[in-house]
Write a structure and sequence with these properties.
- By secondary structure, the chain is an alpha+beta fold.
- Helices cover 27% and strands 18% of the residues.
- Strand 9 and strand 10 form a beta hairpin.
- The radius of gyration is 25 Å and the shape is elongated.
- The chain starts with 11 loop residues before the first helix and ends in a 17-residue tail after the last strand.
């Protein structure tokens, strides 16, 4: 635990205040004299450099504004105030530029609006009248721009709330059209769709819920019915979202924008900020603090100069999406919202509670996922999610399983299993001779010739097409059909059987196939892992005692172990990967296996009889 200047143990609140400063102070040398452009590296995102530098300026405000609102000290507010004046001045060389339609600036303007709503005395009050006019004109321009048809509709709402706080006249009623549209994405059990997409990822808690709770807290008095609905959905969501976090605070690595890191836990700070008491204050506090401690211990996430890097567990450019610039990781500072609450708030005064006792398996139909707990770890079984737009979308959404202990891997090339790093996937090739090109599940369709899960329904809003919605069966099974080629149909059932999970694939193929099905990738640093490979089995045990392996339940496949290219896994820099391989002639085939991923305390489960396939 940290200590304050007097040598007393720091409170959790003081410790988080220190964490904000620890992240923000290293940014100062990278700001130009005006403060508007914070350039943290070479921008290779699809937006221009001015927008990337604005991102470097604005995203730290997600943490700095709550710090200031709660009375925390920060020595460089003058730099951010000067930056706001210069960045919104069309005559200044560091001008950020006017926002266009579906423009990255619209994303960052939301952070500025949020900061004005919380700490106008730090950013607005120091400005001259002319400077305020320019800030107002720049922000107001965002209100009528076209935004992406998803959580982006919250951005002009946040700008509007900031303008409200500083007394700038604008069309306040226009935000209700956007809010109505956002509520139309509600599904049920607290879940939203993020627009008309199959993705149910961290954008639901760190965007849809987070912004709705901000609105409830800052503007709810004038829109009480809507604020109540946002709070009610968040309360429902909280109960199930606990299952995405391991006992040590790690969240399941899954989906896009992983470089935002501890924004994964931002929802737990937004709950108390909006006065939502769906769970005891000490439990919510524990969820957030364990998560932040888990991340703070990962010193590899920062550069030698203290900057958050593009990556997840370590600097890894391959994690990035096409919209990630050098300042993108500072979205993580959304997790510090409770610092805006006074020290007397129940969130701060309640004793931190340990992880709640949760069932071993929970099906979340609206997410198309099954969450499985074992030994304090979490495994997410993914049924029918996919994303063909984000970089590495198949690896981030369409693998069969995602683990807090083992992470997942991203492909480093197209040739061969080593480059593909196809952990938790079934890879298939139609190459003659030695296979080099493999295909995996990328995009799913409703299961073919098998009973489908019930439609999640519309909940309290307009759901997307039920046939496109992710689904999961109550027994802990997810199912989908996918087509690597038009004449190859694969239906995959993935079932929880903690600490194992079971996989069954029905393959109907018009061509000969080579298949390779993988378990989790395990860290090979720290010592040579133990390997066992042969008929019907492949298992690896790391030097730390982590075990991952597969047992072929039909005994027809051959086990082997490979070393994927370094820098592919999001948690471990170098890994080994167990596989089951087989050759299939044209026709119908069934493949079944039991997969185990376990820490040292549960590795002995490998020596027991595995569960049998359910399909």
């Amino acid at each position: 635990m940290a200590h304050d200047a007097d040598g007393r143990p720091a409170t959790a609140r003081e410790d988080l205040q220190d964490y904000v400063r620890e992240l923000a102070e290293p940014l100062v040398p990278y700001a130009g004299e005006s403060g508007a452009r914070i350039t943290l590296g070479v921008n290779i995102a699809h937006h221009d450099d001015a927008a990337a530098d604005l991102e470097g300026y604005a995203r730290p405000l997600w943490g700095l504004a709550p710090l200031g609102a709660g009375g925390g000290d920060f020595a460089h507010w003058d730099l951010w105030a000067r930056g706001l004046a210069a960045g919104t001045d069309p005559g200044h060389p560091d001008h950020w530029g006017a926002p266009g339609h579906v423009d990255q600036r619209l994303v960052e303007m939301a952070a500025v609006g949020f900061a004005l709503a919380l700490v106008p005395e730090r950013l607005w009050d120091p400005l001259s009248g002319a400077e305020r006019d320019r800030v107002a004109a720049w922000l107001t321009a965002a209100l009528d721009r076209e935004h992406a048809p998803n959580n982006w509709n919250f951005f002009p709402v946040l700008v509007s709330m900031g303008l409200d706080r500083v007394g700038v006249a604008h069309d306040r009623e226009a935000r209700h059209v956007r809010l109505d549209r956002l509520e139309g994405y509600a599904l049920g059990d607290g879940w939203y769709a993020d627009g008309d997409t199959p993705q149910r990822d961290y954008y639901i808690p760190w965007a849809m819920h987070y912004y709705g709770l901000l609105y409830s807290a800052l503007a709810g008095a004038g829109d009480p019915d809507r604020a109540a609905r946002f709070r009610e959905r968040a309360a429902e969501f909280a109960v199930g979202f606990r299952h995405w976090f391991a006992d040590d605070g790690a969240a399941v690595p899954f989906g896009r924008s992983l470089t935002y890191r501890f924004a994964q836990g931002a929802f737990w700070g937004a709950l108390p900020y909006a006065g939502v008491d769906a769970l005891p204050a000490g439990e919510v506090k524990g969820q957030l603090l364990r998560h932040l401690r888990w991340w703070r211990a990962r010193t590899a996430q920062t550069s030698p100069h203290g900057l958050l890097t593009i990556g997840y567990g370590y600097p890894q450019p391959g994690v990035a999406e096409q919209y990630n610039g050098p300042g993108s990781p500072y979205w993580a500072m959304k997790a510090f919202l409770p610092l805006a609450l006074p020290a007397t708030d129940p969130f701060w005064t309640a004793p931190e509670q340990p992880p709640a006792a949760l069932p071993a398996t929970l099906a979340q139909p609206h997410a198309g996922a099954v969450l499985m707990r074992s030994g304090g770890d979490v495994t997410l079984l993914s049924g029918s999610q996919h994303n063909i737009w984000a970089r590495g979308g198949a690896a981030k959404y369409a693998k069969f399983a995602y683990s807090t202990r083992f992470g997942f891997s991203l492909p480093a090339g197209e040739l061969g299993l080593v480059q593909g790093a196809y952990d938790s996937m079934l890879a298939v090739s139609d190459d003659e001779g030695e296979p080099r090109h493999f295909r995996v599940r990328e995009q799913c369709v409703p299961p073919v010739d098998v009973p489908a899960a019930p439609s999640p329904g519309a909940g309290d809003g307009a759901a997307a097409d039920p046939q496109a919605d992710p689904q999961a069966e109550p027994d802990g099974t997810v199912c989908s059909t996918w087509y690597p080629w038009p004449d190859v149909e694969i239906t995959s059932w993935i079932s929880a059987a903690a600490p194992w999970h079971l996989r069954t694939h029905r393959i109907r193929t018009g061509r000969a196939l080579r298949t390779a099905e993988a378990g989790f990738a395990v860290d090979r640093d720290g010592g040579v892992p133990l390997r066992t490979e042969g008929e019907g089995t492949a298992v690896v045990v790391s030097a730390a005692g982590d075990l991952t392996g597969l047992r072929d339940l039909d005994g027809t496949r051959t086990g082997t172990v490979i070393e994927p290219l370094p820098g592919t896994n999001v948690l471990a820099r170098r890994t080994v990967l167990p596989l089951l391989t087989a050759q299939l002639p044209p026709g119908e085939h069934w493949l079944r296996c039991a997969v185990l991923g376990a820490g040292p305390a549960q590795a002995a489960a490998w020596d027991e009889e595995p569960p049998q396939a359910r399909h």
